[in-house]
Design brief:
about 30% helix; alpha/beta; Rossmann fold; six-stranded mixed beta sheet
């Protein structure tokens, strides 16, 4: 790709960008949210057409006007939001659009046979007739790779392929990438987990603000240098945690139970405190915050706000009592992607902006403008659709929506998932600012450095139970993992909230 430029209304997304990939190479593409990574790759994949510049594929000029053209040429993209149809089988997903026929009928035995061979190559031992919707995320990721192999792709673009994978599943994916590389397939690898790029890539290209900054051999870089290239400044403190005096208790939960998912949960969180919740996949962390927010029904348990018992049976109840929830999946559960920024920011407080049957556009615009300015959302304007924002700015829109409700307790479920290192630091600083204002923060995170770096106190869960509490001073990754793997132990009837006593 030479001198690629792409414009959207009010935004110069790419400016004079050069990028190349060699045969049998893993080339990492990194940059902050909004740097232009996805736009550049969507031009490769035929989703967008370039405004200026030229592109060559296997030595020949290329200008794809739709994804089918790119796929037929040998280019496959595996998006972060997997492009599979859950209601169809593995075979049907792999062969969709390229079915094998026998006369007027589809040749199912042959397609199942070929699908089974592709899955075996990827070490996936499942029946190809199985519905994709019954597979785990890691298995669905392998089905996407199987589709790429079926189409005999010369170039595979992987966009955040490990965002929902366990450590073991990531290792399996890396083994497959190495096999693909050895067979001559080229990979463009996009991940906000910077350390992964050093494990799997041969070269790294950095984009910033829609421009090419550098392309270097991976061996010539380290994490600190890469971050400086990405953000154009030193992030001397990755977790800018502030020491804020803990205030009075805001929320207390007693004896919360929900089937086998949550058992005997007891904890509290105070004004100005960041309570981190850690645990392995399946520990019950997301189930807990959904129960707190009234999104899922509980079997038993009590909630107290400022020492007074309250009933929370729905999100409406939770909002009325001063709770806000930034969900783990912002696109599916936190945003209306096809609505504007203004409409998303004001969504939870429309009643306060409404007189009779009409919403005051003046009040709505003023409220949205206040938060866009206060937390520095990068946008072409209030009427920009949320789907066109970067991941970090989408997260800021979700945060603005809850700040507009003036919450007492703000729950962050995976607050920095899928956003870049610069945007992460901005989110952390906003958490500090909220704590200074006396908001009680509950932060669920799968990233142990994040939990250790930003929490005042850490609650560890395993098997739907609370297995320990750690103060900031005594918490280590080893201690957290000890409690996170304690699901089969016999627990004492009460767990100290000030330290780990188990």
């Amino acid at each position: 790709m030479r001198a690629i430029t792409k414009r959207f209304p009010g935004v110069l997304a790419l400016s004079n960008v050069n990028f190349d990939v060699r045969r049998g190479e893993v080339h990492a593409l990194v940059g902050e949210n909004g740097a232009g990574k996805s736009t550049l790759m969507k031009i490769v994949a035929g989703v967008y057409t370039r405004d200026e510049g030229e592109m060559f594929f296997k030595g020949q000029p290329a200008a794809f006007t739709n994804p089918r053209q790119a796929q037929n040429a040998g280019i496959t993209t595996i998006y972060q939001e997997l492009n599979l149809i859950p209601q169809l089988s593995i075979t049907e997903n792999i062969f969709l659009g390229s079915e094998i026929q026998r006369g007027a009928l589809l040749n199912w035995p042959r397609m199942h046979e070929q699908a089974r061979a592709l899955l075996a190559k990827l070490h996936l031992d499942v029946d190809p007739r199985r519905l994709v919707g019954t597979l785990g995320v890691a298995q669905q990721q392998m089905v996407e790779v199987a589709k790429a192999l079926h189409h005999k792709s010369d170039l595979i673009i992987m966009d955040e392929p490990t965002s929902a994978l366990s450590v073991r599943e990531i290792e399996d994916l890396f083994d497959i990438i190495r096999e693909l590389k050895a067979s001559g397939v080229s990979i463009v690898y996009i991940s906000h987990h910077l350390e992964e790029n050093f494990v799997i890539s041969d070269r790294i290209t950095v984009l910033r603000d829609g421009m090419h900054v550098a392309t270097r051999p991976t061996s010539a870089l380290n994490i600190d240098t890469l971050i400086r290239l990405m953000v154009g400044r030193d992030l001397s403190e990755k977790f800018p945690k502030e020491n804020i005096a803990r205030g009075a208790e805001v929320l207390r939960v007693e004896n919360l139970n929900q089937g086998s998912r949550l058992r005997d949960i007891n904890f509290s969180v105070h004004a100005g405190e960041v309570l981190g919740i850690a645990g392995l996949v399946g520990a019950g962390r997301t189930e807990l915050v959904r129960a707190l927010f009234g999104a899922d029904m509980i079997d038993s348990g009590k909630f107290f706000i400022d020492g007074r018992e309250v009933i929370i049976r729905s999100p409406r109840d939770a909002i009325r009592h001063g709770l806000g929830l930034l969900t783990e999946d912002r696109k599916q559960q936190g945003l209306f992607l096809k609505l504007t920024m203004r409409e998303n920011i004001t969504m939870a407080v429309l009643k306060a902006l409404t007189r009779g049957p009409f919403t005051s556009r003046t009040k709505e615009t003023a409220l949205a403008a206040r938060f866009i300015d206060a937390i520095a959302i990068k946008t072409a304007g209030q009427n920009q659709l949320v789907m066109n924002l970067s991941g970090g700015n989408q997260q800021k829109v979700v945060l603005s929506k809850w700040l507009a409700t003036e919450p007492r307790v703000l729950i962050f479920d995976e607050p920095t998932r899928g956003i870049d290192v610069g945007a992460k630091v901005e989110i952390y600083r906003l958490i500090n600012a909220l704590a200074r204002q006396g908001v009680a923060i509950i932060m669920v995170s799968s990233e142990l450095p994040e939990v250790l770096g930003m929490s005042d106190r850490i609650m560890v869960m395993s098997g739907g139970r609370v297995t320990g509490f750690l103060s900031r001073d005594e918490a280590t990754e080893e201690k957290i993992m000890e409690y996170a793997t304690a699901a089969d132990k016999t627990f004492a009837p009460a767990v100290s909230q000030e330290s780990a006593v188990l």
